[in-house]
Amino acid sequence: MDTFARLTDIVGADFASNRQEELYIYSRDSGAQQPRKVDYVVMPKTVEEVQRIVKLASEESIPITPMGGGFTTSALAVPVKGGILLDMKRMDKIIEVNEKGRYAVVEAGVSQGALKGYLEKHHPRLQHCTPEAPPTVTIVGNALILGHGHITSRQGINSEMISGIEVVLPSGEVSKVGSCSVSPYWFTRGPLPDLVGLFIGWLGTTGIVTKMSIRLFPKPRHRDALAFFTDNVDLIPEVVFEVTQLDLLENFFLWGQGKPDWMDHVFFVVIVSAQSEDELELKKHAYRKVFEQYEEVEFVEEIPPALRRRILDVPPFAATAADFKKGGGFEYTGAILHVEKVPEAWTRGIEIAHKYGMIYSHAIQVLRDQSVMFAFDYSFNRADKEDVERTRKAIDESDRLTLELGGMVWRPEVSAQKLMMEKMDHHTLELIGMIKKALDPIGIMNPGNWGE
Ligand SMILES: Cc1cc2nc3c(=O)[nH]c(=O)nc-3n(C[C@H](O)[C@H](O)[C@H](O)COP(=O)(O)OP(=O)(O)OC[C@H]3O[C@@H](n4cnc5c(N)ncnc54)[C@H](O)[C@@H]3O)c2cc1C
Questions:
Q1: Which of the 8 DSSP states describes residue 13?
Q2: CA–CA distances in Å: residue 416 to residues 13, 74, 352
Q3: Which of 11-25, 308-322, 377-391 has the highest average model confidence (pLDDT)?
Q4: What are all long-range contacts of 305-310, with beta carbons under 8 Å and residues at least 24 apart?
Q5: 22 phi and psi, to 5 degrees?
């Protein structure tokens, strides 16, 4: 049997394809990266099917790339070296919500929207940390790339919320990692060697995660937003420090963009949440006091209702830069930066946008560890090749700026991975290579990411 016939035999004729019009869709994402070749798409339903596909890929030395929602915008789920695209969407069971233990166990294809809807219906007192991304993106894909969501400033990034996984290794064997390896409860990663780290940030190069347990959090009854603005970018590190000295916020982000004119400032947005109105008022009062110290920072007396709704929505506002141009292209590169580097990143990010004829758009989320995720947003017309090329250049320049400022590129496209590997301590690079080789000796797992 040839490869395609074997894949069809595993998942059924409806769930394997080598038709050009279907491969086309999987060969690109919404970002500006060049399309790349895909040979087969398969949509498994069970862990056993994933195992059989991985074994087939291993026997035939064919690359295999897992995909959740495929929405990183940096083309991380588009194969670099062709082969099999493993679309996980049919593995969409919410296996368990353990209310008192505050965790949910989901299959790899469960989307953010599906878990949110399920919790609202069956566990209205709980929530998960939801990224601003489209609701079709997966819980697993987001957590594995160290994604961030609407309560990240308070609770941490989503990879920190993983309390266990089930994974199909490149050998085709299934492993459980975390408390679920010794207990019926998927409630913690410890006290054990923390093997979850072998799969976070590896971009599918070490195994296919089939199930994941993630932490859930109390859902507050009341939420509100406060907004302030300044034109003095140099104030940012000090203001962020003072605001986070007060440990009462749910989320904290900064925002600014060239259009419309009223947004061309540095906005600070603090989201507070509480179980009672008194608690909410107290928190709002406390934050207003913090900002009152700064003469150059003004309070936004009334956030326009439509904007307020977008800010308080879960997921919150979709990056407005996505609306700047016709043609539907949107990519942002995320820089994990030291807060003191934000003023320089802000100013030089504007210069980069202008150099490539774009309207600047910056969105920054303050992370729990006091670093920030600085998003340089770019929208472009997908039908205009020159515009796409300009965007790639702007992304590349933003990535280089990130590294120059001592930062790291978050969910890096292949070229940014290379930039980081060039800068990386060579022992660290060797260790990455050793781990990949040990788990995937013939190099079938999403090759071309984190080295060959
Ligand atoms: C408008 C917009 C706003 C966004 N806002 C946010 C935001 O606020 N926060 C945020 O974190 N992100 C954001 N994103 C980026 C991105 O959409 C999300 O991070 C998204 O959650 C990624 O999940 P995914 O399912 O699309 O992952 P995919 O792109 O499918 O996969 C990501 C990586 O993980 C690997 N992978 C996927 N599934 C598996 C698996 N089962 N096993 C092993 N490896 C796997 C893939 O090979 C790939 O390397 C935004 C994107 C857009 C377009």
A1: G
A2: 38, 10, 17
A3: 11-25
A4: 308/225
A5: -85, -40
Count the Cβ atoms, other than its own, within 10 Å of residue 203.
25
Looking at residue 158, the DSSP 8-state letter turns out to be G
Q: Which residue is associated with the tokens 């009223």?
A: 262
User: For residue range 151-195, what is the model confidence (pLDDT) as tens digits?
Assistant: 999 999 999 999 999 999 999 999 999 999 999 999 999 899 999
Predicted TM-score (pTM) of this structure? 0.97
CB 143 within 8 A of CB 161: yes
Pocket test for ligand 1, best of 28, 105, 142 (most atoms within 8 A of CB): 142
Q: Residue 70 C-alpha to ligand 1 middle, in angstroms?
A: 6
258 phi, psi to nearest 5 deg: -70, -25
Q: Which of 400, 334, 284 is nearest to 147 (CA)?
A: 334
Substitution site in 47, 51, 116, 145 for ligand 1 pocket (most atoms within 8 Å of beta carbon): 145
The residues near 38 (Cβ < 8 Å, ≥ 6 apart) are: 23, 26, 27, 78, 79, 82, 83, 85
